[in-house]
Design goal:
With 225 residues, the protein is mainly α. The chain is 92% helix and 0% strand. It contains six helices and no strands. The protein has helices spanning 2-6, 8-12, 15-20, 25-80, 84-190, 196-222. The mean pLDDT is 77.
Length: 225
């Protein structure tokens, strides 16, 4: 049956393997889920048609069997009534119906097998969709964590670069301080040397001036001034 060939890959598909092959799980899993939902709708519709065909074939088999039983009972009644010719007619009709019934039974067996396969496809696809939905939540959760980790990595890289810049700034600051200290030292070395004798002269000159003032005050007292 063409519908069975069309959906034969569904019954052997591995939804987990398909997910693993996805390049962008977060985006492609939604698209794959939409595709599977469309497949499920089509499979469901065709499964219903195949199951309806099975039911029709079974009904024809049952009707055929009922007809066979009916003519079999009529043949018995004809014999019991002593009418062999009538019994022969009923048995002939019974055999004719049984011959038709063999073909109906074959058709029913085929319809039943097709219905079983279609139902298996339907049930597997429905199960795969449920699995995909569950994994979609899990995958999207992992993708969110991964994106957060990427942002954290970016921040860490920025912090590392900042620390490196601060280290470079500190080295430049130390170098500037060292250059300033060297400049101050050079300035001190380039200044005129201190005259020690002159410094002492000023010291003692100050002391002499004080002694003169003291003596002047004593003279004023002696003179009554």
């Amino acid at each position: 049956m063409s519908i069975l060939g069309r959906f034969s890959d569904i019954i052997s598909a591995n939804v987990n393997a398909v997910i693993d092959r996805m390049e962008d799980p977060e985006k492609m899993i939604d698209q794959y889920l939409r595709d599977m939902m469309e497949d499920l709708a089509e499979v469901k519709q065709n499964t219903a048609g195949v199951m309806a065909e099975e039911t029709r074939a079974k009904r024809e088999v049952d009707q055929n069997e009922a007809e066979v039983n009916k003519y079999n009972e009529l043949a018995k009644k004809a014999l019991e009534a002593g009418n062999e010719d009538d019994a022969r007619i009923f048995l002939s009709k019974k055999q004719e119906i049984e011959s038709v019934g063999a073909g109906l039974a074959t058709s029913y067996a085929s319809a039943h097998e097709n219905a079983v396969k279609m139902r298996q496809m339907h049930d597997k696809l429905a199960k795969d969709i449920e699995t995909l939905r569950q994994r979609r939540s899990m995958i999207k959760g992992k993708m969110s964590v991964a994106k957060a980790q990427e942002k954290l990595n970016d921040v860490s890289e920025n912090v590392t670069r900042s620390e490196s810049a601060m280290g470079s700034f500190k080295r430049m600051e130390d170098k500037a301080n060292r250059m300033l200290d060297e400049a101050n030292a050079m300035s001190e070395l380039n200044s005129e040397p201190v005259d020690s004798a002159k410094a002492l002269e000023e010291k003692y000159a100050s002391q002499t001036s004080a002694a003169v003032e003291d003596e002047l005050e004593r003279m004023k007292k002696d003179l009554g001034m």
